[in-house]
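Handout for the seminar on molecular recognition.
Each group receives one record of this type.
Step one: identify the two inputs.
Step two: read the structure output and locate the region that could contact zinc ion.
Step three: write two sentences on what you found, then compare them with the reference statements printed after the record.
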Amino acid sequence: MKCGLVAADGAVLHRETRPTPRADARDGGRAVLDALLETVVELSQKATAEGHHVRAIGVVVPGVIDAEHGTVGAENLEWTGTPVLAELKAAVGDGVPIVLAHDVRAGGYAELRHGALAGTTNSMFLPLGTGIAAAMIVDGSLVSGDGYAGELGHSKFIHGDAAELCACGQWGCLETVASAAALARRYAARTGRTVDGAREVMELLAAGDPDAAQVWHDALAALIDALVLYTTLVAPTRIAIGGGLVGAGETLLQPLREGVHARLTFQREPEIVAAVLGEEAGMLGAAQMAWDRAAADEEDRG
Ligand SMILES: [Zn+2]
């Protein structure tokens, strides 16, 4: 869990990372929720003790968020219709507005407001990490689709015998070949050698390892398909790639640009750039959304 205290101007006054309890343990979902509540309460107390006034709280989580009911379904947190917003309100008490949002959409929002997507009205933030999800900015708005939008990672781009089973239950999803986790898993499956994450696959790629090259090629091909599809559907002017894989820099970005360029005919070609806010994007987006809520509430009160 990445968390912090963020001032109105975006300055990070305090930042920390806390371990997320294992969700697969007994009552793991409850343990994750308890850890979240404890973090929010302790950070609020810290802010107050240091003379700050907590104006709003932003919490971002993975999964499907029902904004109307404040519930979250997130398989890897063992949450099913979990009343996260109600629990947060009970823990914090009345008087402090709480925003509950999706982690990747919050990251995209931060990139839109202060990062690689600043100035765009049609764009996408696509972090390639353990999983893949997209934050879609369409005609100036961050699209949430009632909590369901942006699951580009669970679109099928691998067909036939090459398709692997995805955590979502479908076969051949983008996430099964192009996430950082998939690179490591697929390299290990091909070679029988366990590797220390995507980073090691990238090192092997640079050293000329043919299996690393094949795994990388498969990831790029699926990513290019995904970017072309997104470009054709919603015509972004800029796509910011984030997550662990963007550490590969131009080794990733240049073939994506070339691959997308070669496939477009009439479509508007997007710039493909690296996201700039790194691992803090979600936290910064949560804070930005919280400040927006505080400002809106103030306006309502006149
Ligand atoms: Zn999937």
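Reference statements: The chain has a mean pLDDT of 95. The chain has nine helices and twelve strands.
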